[in-house]
Design brief:
The structure holds 3 protein chains of 3 kinds. Chain B has 14 helices and no strands. By secondary structure, chain B is mostly helical. Chain B has one domain. In chain C, helix 6 packs antiparallel against helix 13. Chain C has a single domain, classed as Orthogonal Bundle (Cytochrome-c3 Hydrogenase, chain B), CATH 1.10.645. The chains are: A alpha+beta, B mainly alpha, C mainly alpha. Chains in contact: A-B, A-C, B-C. The interface between A and C is medium-sized, with 32 and 34 residues.
């Protein structure tokens, strides 16, 4: 019977030296890792850029993106239809962002999307857009004008 | 004896009730230590795995074991419908009570002991041999094939490793000349038995690891093979009792190893007692030594893979058993030469 | 006819008959003698178990602790991916492939787009080829690390699991910078990849290579010579060469049994023909050999990554200009025909058969799951061994249920 002293000693050396290394835990939510620029997070719509081509809704792999008629006038959107994304069933694949010809639908970096109430997820596209994209565009337009 | 501490205790507590206080101390110590060990184990495991352990509940996560205890107590006590009603309920206590009782003759310092039995070590080994019965009853009573496999493995394991354990302890008893635990510790005042019995210590440690139920020898539990072995069906406080029992068992085998081979509370250059100051020093020395061994057991747990059941049993019978007999013969020779005759 | 509602009062528990019949697949193993049948135990290593690596159910026929037969029951994760593919275009199929072998999503993407490219006769630009090889090898390292953690957990060592997760973070972070996601990358496109490498990526990848080489030494010290680990995995789950070939195993299963077959060397695709790397082959066929093969494969992957970093063209297209990017991928049309293309991924040969009828929607996709063929010889590997050996053998096959069940 071989007494495996050397082999065990090597193993113990690994575990004991790893006790001296700094822990790699990122204490969420006090500390957070940065996500890269092209992180595929929540859908963000820029209504004014949308032309109503419905490519995003055709390319969505699980039909989370549907078109809806909105009472809103976008410059190039004659039919006044805009995408409406069910962000609960969205798989955040980014195909809609990739295929959009005018960059109207994008994936933001926001990933903290949990809510306690399921009804909160019932966004409509005007609401979704108003929250980020539209406000950004309005600010840009104001900066350009004034 | 002019020992103020003993006199104080004796005057405060009339002898008829002293045993009750002693029993409470043993229970409190074991359960408290079991709880604290869960925190220590999780922190050491985490640091070995380069992550933080519990650090949210209380400063540095120190109150985590209280939170775990509250969680266990607040869970529904689920008993499978076709489990043996009394076996299922009694098994956790069959597993932990022997460990609590085995702490009774364990000395923390000179005179700091719940009850200094003249057959201390025999009592400890005999009582701790009852603990596996709790595992077997748990496994059988659960009406679950995984539990039954765990129980059968526990039975085989304890039969195989009880003998080397006891033979090594007998060698120590021969060298010390007494079965009393205080006597064994005092006999090592000038020379720790580890230097006389290195082989015996190794055998004892491996056999004690087998009884403790931690990887590399956690056959009865075998988490990745048998889900949770004999306590698969247990949840809530019953599982908490088993869990605390496993951790208290780790402290128990460390304390036993320290007592038998590393001098208990005695250090070669310090007096072994005589005043409350030295008794206190003795307690601290004992706890420090136990802490070192607890760390060794935990490091072994987190480093080594699990030995396969049949391989471990064959090591027990084919390797440790003959070696422990050889060790006994060596101890006899040592007694002859060191004490000049029998 | 309406059935009465089941309430807690009127539900009755059926007691199993005293001599339960074994399922047909295992009945042939139960011997004829009644005494031995009485002794055999049918253990359900069920869909929920710490060691089945997913929702796999094994019905194990045990005689004491000795395994007499294993009958895997699969399908708990079947999602009908091949049917879903028929609904959409070629582009819409790529997110679906991510979710097949979710531990090595890039490899699934790779097999899929390779099949489409061969069918559509698409030339992949050189830079895109280098990028694809680079990311495929990073993914291989991550996939093998994800295998190593649970494999050590199966044999009882709890620490390497966390180290593997920590080390995998480096690879996942690299791929996250490229694609924007950590597990389901959806990144390869027909004729190339979705976007170009961000600036500084190659330096980060080189740093990760240095880091991983140190870590692999650590794993080696902890495990490869550890007597307990060796004794647990040697002669366990032996897969003879003949069986490995007959069952259609691939990847480390095949190479651990002595067959030196690797798609990257046998039918080189993209720039693998220019890469200098060895393919580790061991002849024992047991779990230890497969472990060594995978550890060495990680080292070879790091070698390939370094070569890609050194040889990466500074300029070039990241996707074939004739197919394009964005919506043009969605409108990709392949000429009518049928093609099977395979790549060497983490678990073995990932293959995709695509049948096209000339429109922009594929007619049929068939996915060759390496895990299904690798799992098939499980019974022959473990019969006669004990329960712990069953667990270690299953771990050494490296199954991912998404790939097994599709």
């Amino acid at each position: 019977m071989r007494v495996p002293i050397l082999a065990f000693a090597k193993g113990f050396k690994e575990t004991l030296t790893s006790m001296t290394k700094a822990p790699v835990t990122v204490e969420y939510p006090e500390e957070m890792r940065d996500v890269p620029e092209n992180w595929r997070g929540r859908i963000k719509l820029y209504l004014d850029l949308c032309v109503g081509c419905t490519t995003c809704s055709m390319v969505c792999p699980n039909a989370s993106c549907q078109m809806e008629a909105l009472d809103y006038q976008a410059p190039k959107n004659k039919r006044a239809i805009f995408p409406r994304v069910d962000i609960v069933s969205c798989i955040y694949c980014g195909l809609c962002e990739e295929t959009c010809p005018t960059d109207a639908i994008r994936l933001d970096k926001e990933f903290k999307l949990s809510e306690y109430d399921r009804g909160v997820f019932d966004y409509d596209s005007y609401e979704l857009s108003k929250r980020e994209g539209q406000l950004e565009l309005e600010r840009e337009n104001e900066a350009k004008a004034g | 004896m002019a020992d103020p501490l003993t006199n104080l205790i004796e005057t405060l507590i009339a002898p008829p009730y002293a045993w009750f206080i002693g029993a409470l101390l043993a229970v409190g110590f074991v359960l408290g230590v079991g709880g604290i060990m869960s925190y220590v184990m999780r922190k050491i495991m985490a640091r070995i795995q380069t992550r933080l352990g519990p650090n949210r509940v209380g400063p540095f996560g120190l109150l985590q074991f209280l939170a775990d205890g509250i969680k266990f107590m607040s869970k529904e006590d689920v008993i499978p419908s076709r489990a043996d009603p009394w076996g299922f309920r009694i098994a956790p206590y069959l597993a932990i009570v022997p460990i609590i009782v085995a702490f009774v003759p364990l000395p923390f310092s000179n005179q700091v002991i719940v009850s200094d039995l003249s057959v201390g070590i025999l009592f400890i080994l005999a009582i701790s041999a009852v603990a596996p019965i709790g595992e077997i009853v748990a496994g059988w009573a659960s009406n679950n094939k995984y539990s039954m496999y765990g129980a059968m493995r526990a039975a085989a394991l304890d039969v195989a490793y009880e003998i080397p354990l006891i033979l090594s302890a007998i060698a120590v008893v021969m060298l010390a000349g007494t079965m009393s635990t205080t006597g064994i510790a005092l006999a090592q005042h000038h020379l720790w038995f580890i230097l006389l019995q290195p082989l015996g210590a190794l055998i004892f440690f491996v056999a004690a690891l087998a009884k403790a139920g931690v990887v590399p020898t956690d056959l009865p539990e075998s988490e990745s093979e048998l889900v949770a072995g004999y306590f698969t069906e247990y949840s809530g406080m019953k599982f908490g009792v088993f869990f605390v029992g496993v951790l208290a068992n780790i402290v128990f085998i460390s304390a036993l190893t320290v007592l038998l081979y590393f001098g208990g509370w005695t250090m070669p250059f310090l007096p072994t007692g005589g005043s409350w100051l030295w008794n206190l020093v003795g307690i601290l020395v004992f706890l420090a030594k136990v802490a070192v061994f607890v760390f060794i057991v935990l490091a072994t747990w987190f480093t080594l893979p699990r030995v396969r059941a049949d391989q471990f049993l064959s090591i027990g019978w084919k390797v440790l058993f003959p070696l422990s007999v050889v060790n006994l013969v060596v101890a006899v020779a040592e007694v002859y030469f060191l004490k000049g005759g029998f | 006819m309406t059935t009465p509602a089941i309430t807690p009062d009127n539900v009755t528990l059926k007691t199993a008959p005293a001599s339960a019949e074994f399922p047909p697949a295992l009945a042939r193993l139960a011997t004829k003698s009644a005494a031995e049948k009485q002794r055999l135990v049918l253990l359900n290593v069920g869909p929920q178990h710490p060691s089945t690596h997913g929702v796999l159910r094994l019905r194990v026929l045990l005689d004491g602790e000795i395994v007499r037969g294993v009958d895997p029951v699969i399908g708990y994760l079947h999602r009908g991916v091949e049917k879903l593919w028929e609904d959409g275009s070629y582009l819409q199929g790529i997110p679906l492939t991510d979710r097949l072998d979710y531990a090595a999503a890039m490899h699934n993407n790779y097999a899929f787009v390779r099949a489409c490219e061969v069918l559509g006769n698409v030339q992949v630009p050189e830079k895109a080829q280098y990028i694809r090889v680079l990311t495929a090898e990073i993914q291989r390292v991550a996939s093998h690390l994800l295998w190593l953690g649970p494999f050590c957990l199966d044999s009882g060592a709890v620490t390497p699991f966390f180290w593997c997760m920590r080390d995998r973070e480096g690879a996942i972070a690299l791929l996250e910078r490229l694609s924007g996601a950590r597990l389901t990358y959806n990144w390869y496109r027909i004729g190339g990849v979705k976007n170009d490498l961000p600036p500084g990526f190659l330096d980060e990848a080189a740093r990760y290579c240095d880091y991983m080489e140190e870590r692999l030494k650590e794993y080696w010290n902890l495990l490869a010579e550890n007597d307990i680990f060796v004794v647990r995995t040697k002669k366990v789950g032996v897969l003879p060469k003949r069986l490995a070939i007959n069952y259609g195993c691939s990847g480390p299963m095949l190479r651990g049994s002595g067959v030196a077959y690797d798609q990257r060397k046998a039918h080189p695709y993209d720039v693998y023909g220019r890469m200098k790397f060895d393919v580790p082959v061991r002849t024992g066929g047991d779990a230890y050999d497969r472990f060594i093969v995978r550890m060495k494969e990680m080292t070879e992957s790091i070698r390939i990554i370094r070569q890609c970093i050194a040889e990466m063209p500074a300029t070039g297209d990241y996707v074939s200009p004739e197919v394009g990017e964005g919506a043009r991928q969605h409108r990709f049309k392949a000429p009518p025909g049928e093609v099977y293309a395979a790549i060497e991924g983490g678990r073995g040969e990932y293959g995709c058969l695509v049948v096209s009828d000339g429109t922009s929607k594929p007619y049929r996709f068939k996915w060759r799951a390496p895990t299904l063929s690798n799992l098939a010889p499980l019974h022959d590997m473990v019969v006669g061994l004990k329960i712990p050996d069953l667990v270690v053998s299953l771990g050494s096959i490296d199954i991912i249920l998404g790939d097994l069940d599709r």
